[in-house]
Predict the 3D structure of the following.
Amino acid sequence: MNFPSEMELDVDTMLLDKSYATMLESVEEIYDYASDNNPTALQAQLQLKSSKMKYLMAKGRMLPSISFSAGVSTNYYENLKGEQAPAAFGSQFKNNRGEYISFNLSFPLFNGLDRLTNLRKARNNMRIAQEQQTEVLRQLQTAIEQAILDREGYAKETIQMEKKAQVKKGDVIIRLSNSSLDLQILDAEAQLAEKQNFLRNTQVAMEQDKLNNQLEKAQLDVDIARSRRAYSQQKKLYDENLIAKEDYLKAKEDYELATKKYDLVVERLRQDSISRTIQMDEMETSLANMRRNIQLVHERKEHLNVRSQIDGELGLLDVVLGQNVSAGLKIGQINDLSDYKVEAMIDEHYIDRVKPGLDADFDRQGTSFALAVRKVYPEVRDGKFRTDLVFTGERPDNIRSGQTYYINLELGQPTESIIIPRGTFFQSTGGSWIFVLDKDGKKAYRRKIKIGRQNPQYYEVTEGLEAGEKVIVSSYESYKDNEVLVLE
């Protein structure tokens, strides 16, 4: 590649984002599917179809109708009091038979205005259904276009997030989508709108009933006033013997009936008022519950935006566009840069000696960093147990998760000892003796020793050896019975 060496080469790590557009559906494909399967769109389509059928039925009632009917009849009779024998059944059946044919032609003349009104009403309902379907499809297409735009924007954000290392608390790391949840929101909003319309219609009907009841009560007030006045007049005339008693009793009964009717109507109005109040409260409560449900569904949709809960480093993002993410699936990891812990796997031989608080250190780039044991896990796996250590002082620069360090762990106070490498001689001697080379290195003599502490690399010799002496630590199987070995 011909590139000037004195210029800096900027490498763009952004992934190619042109592949996702050809893998997913377009607006037209989603709209074609949704217009045939979306419940709201299907409801609008069926309502339009129903209104068209009602319009055709109303239109057919405006046309003249022709009907045809035909029939055959016969009878048999017998005079039970007569002395003459009746004619035979067969002859009566034949002679008394009659046939008729009728044609009826009717024109809608006298009720034509009513049918014309119904026709116009059905036509208006059909036009309203057409407009409603158009509006439903328009809203559906708008929602799909917005969803497509959101999808493309989320895809670009995802690609940018893959190359982003540092994240802040609240940053959107990945955006998930749930078509079932979107349909649930649309259905819930449609049900809420339908419920609100029903509530408004019920309120209008209740107000109309209330006005009718008030009108009825006003009419009863007038009726009882008239009845009272007529009763008073009839009573005075009756007391003066100017009218018949029947007229007086009739006026009295009319007044008593009007009074009882008034009391019953007042009680009915009171019960209706209580019933309307209870019904309105229940409907308001139902609407409030539906609004809360929609709010909860929207909150669930907001939770589809996976946000960072801490400030840190995005260490893992194992998700691709179009992947089906199930609940509980691990798709990413954020490293907390405010502090680190070191995880060490130690041989089970030291599990009784490693305790929280022990000091440790490791070297990195020529600098020693201090650690301390924070937690010791009791489980042993594959001959090792897990231990967590934390920094007690400064931390290395540019430290990363997953890096490997070799740690020096102090199990006690440091002491000077004579140590020898671990070897297979231990299987033959049990650590009770060893071959020690002389000063010339030509012979090796058997010598008793005593083994103290040990680790995976060394044995501590407490007796039998001096500092600087050389020993043989390989297998003794071939010469374990010899006292002296001659080395050539």
